[in-house]
Amino acid sequence: MKYNTLLVMMLLSSSAMASELPSFLDQNDINNAEFTCLGEESQYNEDDQKYVDILWNETLQYLESYAVALTNSENGPCLNSDEAMYDSTEGGKNMCIMDRRDMKLMVKNIYQVINNPNKAKKCFGAREDVNWIYSPGGELEQNSPVAKWLKRESFNSFFDNKVTNKDVRKMGKEFTKNFAKMVMGDEVKMPSAFPTDISANALPNLWAAAGWFPMYAQESKRNDKNFNNIRGGYAYAEIFGHWGLLRIDEINKQKVGAEVGMTVQSVDTLYPYHNHAISEIYYNMRVPACANEFTTFAVREDSKLVTTVREDSNVRTVQFDAGQFNAQSQWLSSSAEHDPLMYFHQNTIHAFEVDGSCEAKPEERAIVSVWARSNANDKRNDYGTTLLCESAKNPGTPAHSDEVIQCDLTKLKW
């Protein structure tokens, strides 16, 4: 198929993107929505615009499928909602994710975008001028005309020139070499709630060109509490949000708090216990090589298992005994095929562990997720900061899964 024919077909599909609305949304609030962008509208010449259009079309497909999944009630007891795990302790706790007001607002914002694509597109750009987001390079970039046009700095260059820790650099280079294998192939699978495939298998330009950030790789005081293998083996990209490709400040004069993107975490890693004052969700999209390969820990801040050790007007410091009797039962499995959706309320302490012992080629595998935060517009609550917990016995060092962990929780303002 010729390139121009493919482009026309993609653009035609985007014009038909509007979907039937969930019953909890008001059609009048969706139709003819008005958008206020973050920053100036991006301008492109005719040659460049064709690449931006491809990226925009794949963005719309990503967002629409995501909104449908969140409101899909075919797999559980919920009405107009998928079911999510929100606390892994004491046998685990689930809820209908659309019971949360912030989730309803995020879904509404997505439908306002996909039902008014021409207006929303004014807030969209390739972000080619941003120097802190990167291309994974390799096969992913070679298969994407958009990524080759953008010429973002590569992961290879990032780890060579901007990462000083030798162990992190070495692990980051291995992560880079295998990134395409991690996000593509038969092991990557959409949860059944999704109507379409929005992985790198189906949307190669978006996954190659969105702009990725290995957020823990560079030196910072926060990383004293982190593990080198996760520093070199983790990255995320943001599609819709304040730091993403689609940057919207307000819709119908209401602030937009949605951040939507994707994350990749290599196997044989523990994403350390952490928390933040912004609600967050994950959809896992990997088929595990064995049972319990991908496990999640989550405990809410008001759990009886969490003890306050000190507090001031802004922060409450708490402890949780991760090494208590039956501690391993506090972790629950999650994959594309089993309980794929997780919701973390503000200040939920959570962690992700990926066991690569059953992988034939662990260096080529990762947990891949659709990720979002829902109320990121509320900057009173420390927008954007992920607080890593620490060892209670050895403060300032990473907390392992067999000891008492200590976390600083933000006192939320309303």
From TrEMBL:
Record bears the keyword Signal: yes
Keywords from the named record: Signal
InterPro entries xref list: RmlC-like_jellyroll
Keyword Signal attached: yes
Signal peptide limits: 1-18
Entry superkingdom: Bacteria
Name the record gives this protein: Uncharacterized protein
Organism: Shewanella psychromarinicola
